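Hi, here's the filled form for the chain we discussed.

Project: internal
Contact: R.S.
Residues: 361
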Amino acid sequence: MLPSNRARLYVLPALLALLLSTRQAKYTISQDCTSCNGNREGGGSIVKMLMRTCFFLLSFIIVCSRVTGAPIRKRDADFESVRTRLSRDHSGKAGDPKDKYFHESTVSSIQLISLLIGLANLPPQFHPHYDGRFADRVLSDSDRMTHLTALMQTYLATMNDIGAETWIMHGSLLGWWWNRKIMPWDSDVDVQMSYSSMDYLAKFYNMTVHHFKLPNIAEGRDYMLEVNPHYTNDSVLDRLNVIDARWIDTETGLFIDITTLRPNTTAERQGRKGIMMCKDRHHYLEKDIFPLRESIFENTPVKIPYAYTELLEEEYGAKALVMKNFQNHYFDSQKMEWLPNGSVSQRFNFTLDFQRHLRGL
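And the returned structure, exactly as it came back:
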């Protein structure tokens, strides 16, 4: 039976004591053999035996540590270990189940009831797309877009530098379809990643902080890459951990959700090949994702899935690719921008359309 972690705590001091005693024994035997002819060989044998015993014990402990070492504890990076400028945590951690890794800055139903009846005094949570360890307020629309753009650019640049395979999906891919930009009403961006790349990030880049000098931010900005240790669990039943990693702006609290695309093992057992899935219950055909295409998003090189049109139509419907009025915005085809309803550009375009209509009568 291999020793437990507790047992090894006692074995290590014993080994140290044995090494010290061996050194003392070598010294004593050397002194004795100076005055006793014929005993030098016997003393040397004792020393060799003790040294071999120490070497065996040391090797045994190292092997045991590798075989029975306790796994990394699956816990979140708490507020005190990553805090920057805030004095209190604004995440929803206090009301979340213990197995949930990432904590959105929102009030759970349990927290809300506790607050209403006066049984809890929790810091205010304000928005699900902000990390409450770094943020305590919602940004204005213009500030949010500035920082989201930088968030996307720095993420893509970093993943490209370290060789991680990633691509945009969902609302971010829809924004790419229209004008290669984040849509102005979005408060987050969505990306996917291959399992091999997620495993690579977890092993070599988890909890690393990356500093960027940005043109619109004089002091630059730090971004943290955080990997959920539950990424190895591919079950859709793990509903508390559907997000596998995040790229987080440590100043504003904005983040990118990173989900892992992996083979659908259930489909494979049924003999169906080439079916992929994410833990958030999105399913894809491998041929619709790969090979990835190269393009530009927010003036930065990006990869997109192969069958992007079919994927967007399946998720949002065909109208989402042609409808120019959405979320109180109007798409200006000349400027290639989404503009707020009632803007000067929209009124001007409406006048032109009306004049063309009159000429056609």
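Let me know if anything looks off before we file it.
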